[in-house]
C-alpha cells in the first residue's frame, strides 16, 4: 500500500488552516508586497531582454540583428531637400545630351604620360601639329578642339608651358599662331585684364552655334557661325556679357552625360547673370 508523503497536508485540516493564515498575513505585510513586486518586475524585465526582435521591430526602430543576438543601429540616409531636386531639374533644362565626334586613342589613354614635345609638320595636305608624350606616344591634330576629348587638365598646362618655352622668341604664324591664341585666351583672360579687350568686344554680334563641355579636362567651348572657337576653363570667369551668357543657357550646354561638373557650370553661369 502506497504511503502518503509526510509533507502532504489534508484540505481542511488544522495544518492546512495554519498555512493559509500565514499566507494571508504575509500578503498584508508592506515589506513582503515590495519584495513580491520587485521579483515580478525583474522577471518581466528578463523576459523582455530575451525577446528576439521581429521584422516589424527592426523596421520601426531602425535596427538590424547581428550574429550573437546583438542589435546594430542602421544609419539612415538623410533625405535630399526638395529645393536641391528642383534646382537640378532646372539645370537639366539647360543640357543637351549628345555624342561627341572624334575617336579616342585607347593606347594613348591607357599609357598616359605628360606631353614632352610639340612639333609642326608640313605635308601636301597642309600643316598640322603633333604632340609627343614622354612614353613615345603621339597624336596629330589641326586645332585644339580636336584633342580635348583625350586631354586632362594636366595636358593643357603642359601644352601651354611648351608653347611658352618653345616659341617665346619666335614669331608665330599659321596653325601655331591659332593654337597659341586659343591657349592664351583660355589661360590668361579675366575681367581685370584689358590687353585682350578688343577680342571680347561686339559680343552682341556673336552668333553661337555650339556650347559644349569637355569634362575630362574641364573646358567648355563656344563655336560661332564664322568658325571662331573660344576655349574656356569651367571654373574661370571670362568677360562675357550677361546677354551672351543668357544666349548660352537658351542654346543649351552639350554634354555626353549629366554630371556634377555640368550642373556646377550651369549654376555658375546663372549666378553671373543674376549679379548686379
Explain what you see:
This protein has 276 residues and is α+β, with helices and mostly antiparallel strands. It has 3 domains: 14-73, no CATH class; 81-96 and 189-276, no CATH class; 100-183, OB fold (Dihydrolipoamide Acetyltransferase, E2P). Helix content is 41%, strand content 18%. It is built from 9 helices and 10 strands. The chain has helices at 14-28, 30-50, 55-61, 82-92, 106-110, 153-167, 174-188, 242-251, 260-274; strands at 63-65, 71-73, 95-97, 115-123, 126-133, 138-141, 208-214, 219-224, 229-233, 253-255. Strands 4-5-6 form a 3-stranded antiparallel sheet. A 3-stranded antiparallel sheet has the order 7-8-9. A hairpin with a 4-residue loop joins strand 8 and strand 9. Helix 8 runs antiparallel to helix 9. The radius of gyration is 40 Å and the shape is extended. The termini are far apart. Residues 1-70 are annotated as: Disordered. Residues 15-61 have a biased composition (Basic and acidic residues).
Quick description:
The protein has 276 residues and is α+β, with helices and mostly antiparallel strands. The chain contains nine helices and ten strands.
Overall shape: it is: extended
Low-confidence stretches: 1-12, 49-86
**Element string (H = helix, E = strand):** HHHEEHEHEEEHHEEEHEH
The gyration radius over C-alpha positions equals 40 Å
C-alpha end-to-end distance? 114 Å
Spatial order of the strands forming the largest sheet? 4-5-6
Biased composition (Basic and acidic residues): 15-61
Region (Disordered): 1-70
Amino acid at each position: 500500500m502506497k504511503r502518503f508523503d509526510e509533507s502532504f497536508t489534508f484540505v481542511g485540516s488544522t495544518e492546512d488552516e495554519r498555512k493559509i493564515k500565514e499566507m494571508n498575513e504575509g500578503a498584508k505585510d508592506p515589506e513582503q508586497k515590495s519584495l513580491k513586486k520587485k521579483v515580478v518586475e525583474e522577471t518581466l524585465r528578463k523576459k523582455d531582454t530575451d525577446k528576439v526582435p521581429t521584422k516589424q521591430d527592426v523596421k520601426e526602430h531602425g535596427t538590424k540583428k547581428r550574429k550573437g543576438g546583438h542589435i546594430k543601429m542602421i544609419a539612415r540616409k538623410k533625405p535630399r531637400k526638395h529645393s536641391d531636386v528642383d534646382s537640378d531639374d532646372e539645370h537639366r533644362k539647360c543640357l543637351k545630351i549628345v555624342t561627341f565626334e572624334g575617336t579616342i586613342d585607347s593606347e594613348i589613354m591607357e599609357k598616359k604620360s605628360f606631353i614632352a614635345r610639340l612639333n609642326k609638320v608640313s605635308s601636301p595636305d597642309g600643316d598640322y601639329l603633333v604632340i609627343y608624350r614622354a612614353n613615345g606616344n603621339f597624336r596629330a591634330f589641326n586645332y585644339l578642339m580636336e584633342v580635348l576629348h583625350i586631354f586632362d587638365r594636366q595636358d593643357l598646362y603642359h601644352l601651354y608651358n611648351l608653347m611658352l618655352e618653345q616659341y617665346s622668341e619666335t614669331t608665330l604664324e599659321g596653325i601655331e599662331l591659332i593654337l597659341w591664341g586659343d591657349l592664351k585666351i583660355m589661360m590668361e583672360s579675366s575681367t581685370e585684364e584689358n590687353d585682350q579687350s578688343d577680342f571680347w568686344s561686339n559680343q552682341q554680334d556673336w552668333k553661337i552655334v555650339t556650347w559644349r563641355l569637355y569634362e575630362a579636362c574641364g573646358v567648355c567651348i563656344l563655336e560661332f557661325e564664322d568658325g571662331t572657337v573660344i576655349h574656356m576653363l569651367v571654373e574661370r570667369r571670362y568677360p562675357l556679357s550677361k546677354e551672351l551668357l543668357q544666349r548660352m543657357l537658351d542654346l543649351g550646354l552639350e554634354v555626353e552625360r549629366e554630371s556634377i561638373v555640368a550642373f556646377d557650370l550651369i549654376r555658375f553661369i546663372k549666378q553671373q547673370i543674376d549679379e548686379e
